[in-house]
Write a structure and sequence with these properties.
5-stranded mixed sheet; single chain
């Protein structure tokens, strides 16, 4: 099971890869969102902030501060943000729960295609 401090490192590296992509910067320009990432089995909460076309790890945002919530087990969440696992399969089998507006869900679909190729 991925520990909270290890997941912070995973999210920081994800943000570095995100920020190195001009395509992702262009796609997310003007789409300022906070993602609340919750490991249901490990009890930790992390955040990822996308703002002005850049991503950054943030301390655990309060649910009212996050437009998007991702919930799953720690290992699945880590594998997704390491780029080892597309979020599509865990989402479809119900092991990854995503709560967002319909508009944000459509943006996440395009984002998934760009990052994971699915």
């Amino acid at each position: 099971m991925v520990a909270a401090d290890a997941m912070q490192g995973v999210l920081e590296r994800f943000a570095e890869r995100f920020n190195a992509s001009p395509d992702l910067a262009r796609m997310t320009q003007g789409w300022d969102r906070t993602l609340r990432i919750v490991a249901l089995d490990a009890g930790w909460v992390h955040g990822l902030r996308v703002e002005a076309g850049r991503a950054a790890w943030v301390a655990a945002p309060d649910p009212s501060q996050a437009e998007i919530a991702l919930q799953g087990d720690a290992d699945t969440l880590a594998a997704i943000f390491r780029g080892e696992l597309s979020p599509t399969e865990p989402y479809l089998d119900g092991t990854l729960l995503v709560r967002s507006s319909e508009e944000d869900m459509m943006k996440l679909d395009v984002f998934t295609l760009m990052v994971w190729g699915e």
